Each structure stands twice: as structure tokens, then as C-alpha cells.
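Entry 12.
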Amino acid sequence: MSFLSKTVLITGGAKGIGKAVAKAFKREGYNVCITYNSSMAAAYEMSQAGYTIYKVDITNETEVLSCIDDIITRFGKIDCLVNNAGIAETRMFTSITEERLRHMLDTNLIGAFNVTRDVINKSMLARKSGCVINISSIWGRVGGSCEVHYSASKAGLIGLTKALAKEMGPSNIRINAVAPGVIKTDMIKNLAPDEIDQLKEEIPLRRIGTPEEVADVVYFLASDSSQYITGEVITVDGGMYT
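Predicted 3D structure (C-alpha cells):
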């Protein structure tokens, strides 16, 4: 790792989609920095594999700023931010308390907002260079029954993406989002086999997506191949909601 390489910060990068994204960037020679909050064992494994890890609660701005400052001290700059950290919950609308709603919004939307603002302020604006990729969800585009608070938080992330792309465009900072569909991560590990089969029937490609397939799209949006793309939301869902 060096100042000569590009540097990426991936929030929630210890497992699932975040881990796959981290591996994709590392293959391309990036300095890869990841944050985790509760996945200590998974983060330790990533550390042993050569990733730079930080324990950060993205809803805590002091922790966020400390992490960003350390990355800039070590590597000089942050070229790309991937806002992947988030939580999900299935719950009937009538049982969603204000506390649960605020926790969802704080993590999935406000946390991403804070990290993005601080990375742009500290490393991208002055250089007039950089990109941000937000991991939203198909539920942020079409809404999910019994996931109203989750859907609202991910829809907010799409709004943030589109608005910020317009504001940051003149500074040559690109803002895009990826909206995964049903992906083989911990989010579906508790589903019964018949539930998985039912989901597959709703997907034109007739299979569950992989974290690596999402990671490939994320890296594309960070690469030189997408230099004229900003404000976009790319859905990776096997055609489930085309």
C-alpha cells in the first residue's frame, strides 16, 4: 500500500457485499480501507488478509472523522467511497416504533450522508476528483411490504445520490448508486428453502445473485470506464423489477 495507489473506503466492508467489493478493489491495486461496527471476527480476517480496518459507528461523526483523518494521513487521499454499511429488518408497519424508524434512518441514510460529506470535504473537493457509490436496494426503488422503514431509508439514499450528483458535477466528483435485488448474503440466510425457491420464480434469471456480481458493478462505477456516468442507479436484480 502506498501514496501512489488509489485509495477506497468501504463502510461495512467486513462481510457480504462489502467484502466482495473490497476484494474487487484490492485486485485492481487499490489501498483498501474498510469499516466495521459489530462484525469483529470477520473484520479480523480481513485485517489478516491485508486490508486496513477501522471500527467505526457511522452514526458517530467523531468516529467517522477520526477514521477519515487516519486514512488521509496514511495514504494521502480517498479516491472512492463506497457507502455499504447498513441494517435491514422485516416488520409490520403498524409495529414500527419511532425508535426503530430513527435507528434505521440513522444507519442507512444519515450515516451515509455524514461519511459522504466528510470524505468530500476532506479529500475530494480541493482535488476536484473522486467518486461515491451508494449501496441502495431494489426496495428503495419499488418498495417492500413489511419493510417500510428499510425501503424509506434506501429510497432516501437514491435521492441523496441524484441530488448530490448535480451539486458535485462541476467539481468532477461523481455520485452513483447500485440497487441490489435478492443477493446471497446474511440477509436471506434465515429463509426456508421453499421461500428461496419462490423468490427464484420471481426472478427472470431464475437464481439468487452473488455479492461478487454486485461488486463488479460497483467497481465499474469507480473505474475509468464510467467517467461520464453520474447520478445513476444501477439495479442488479436478475430482472426481478425491470
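Annotation: The mean pLDDT is 95. The domain at 7-236 is CATH 3.40.50.720 (Rossmann fold).
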